[in-house]
Amino acid sequence: MTAIKFAWSALGGDAALLPRVSGVVREGALQGRLPVRELARACVGACALAAAELGARRSGLREVPAVRVDDGAVAAAFHSERHLLVDGRAPVGFAPLSRFWRTADGWVRTHANYPHHRARLLDTLGVPEDVAAVEAALAVRSAPEVEEAVYAAGGLAVALRTPEEWATHEQAVQVAARPLVERARLGSTHARVLAPLNGSPLLPAAGLRVLDLTRVLAGPVATRTLALLGADVLRVDPPQLPELPDQHADTGFGKRSTTLDLTADRRTFEELLAAADVVVTGYRPGALDRFGLSPHALAERRPGVIVAQVSAWGAYGPWRERRGFDSLVQVASGIAALEGSPEQPGALPAQALDHGTGYLLAAAVLRALTEQSYEGGGRLVRLALARTAEWLVNGIGAGAAGVDPYEGPGPWLAETDSSLGRLRYALPPVSFAGGPVDWARPPVPWGTDSARWV
What we know:
17 strands
């Protein structure tokens, strides 16, 4: 319970509610050298407790519903992108140029899943789209040189560091100095009046409208969770940047999807914002400010709004404007070195930084809603994959051995028909007494819906 106690405290939760959480510990789930299972369990447990707390508040329950965290369900959900099948077809994973590469002095990892990132990597190296050519170009350069050159061109490459090397980096110093969950007030509006809940299942976020301006993977996991809990989640993407189809399907359960040009369609966006309760962003810090989407600008136009932000490196420090993904944060923070060997860097058994941060972000929104119902005021909540990595490496101890073995994801997978085809998918791990056990609707193709609230 130490990890969930820390996470719940970071969310501003009442420690008296922690006894409402119980768990099923399964040996072999999310097995790695680092305590990934403990991190995953804590993030999901804190999210479920935040949902149960809000549900009790809205339903007038005298006691917060009991929360149950099963390591099997958590492990299946943290691998959701791997378990997805579309008409029996497995999802496309990392692109051929998204991998570790040897350099003249060590290792570097690139991320080139998106065409524009791939093009910038190749332009920097001056080679065609060929693995052997990229390999040869990187082999004669130093890892720090590659990191800086690719970043300057708008691409993604990160040099492998040990935990000790990362700890001395100015970005790591600033990350470690921040709380796991950054929380602040945005203005002083009246207390939020939440409509009472009736019926079953208990949907703590029912009636709430969430503008989802996120991509890959933590942000979409957070908004997928809010959709599970009853929110009307509208994902908004720029029309010129299509999402990878399998990724969109995996994180699209319960949501609607639209495209919107924030310059040309400004009036439409302002109409959406005027009725939104929550705005979740997953772009680089400051990237959306020019559209008037900074937290304070949003709160001025929509008093009482909750703004939730997630980024790779944090909204501070020399790397605050850098793009990043789970795999790259693992490389920079020393996780890849810890999980690998002297001959080859490694990786966590799941994209746990993304998934864990996503559930914590959803939890932060739920807790902000509960706080608003008493105190009023808008809220800003902020998380960073690099801060979650710091917690994993330096803040979580090994948990107790499991009583039950983890024998695979089978019990926590389901199937449904959709406009995308027949889907196999991982069931949600967020579970509390009387709560939902599945999403109300399957994902839809990218950009299917009109830009309006239901």
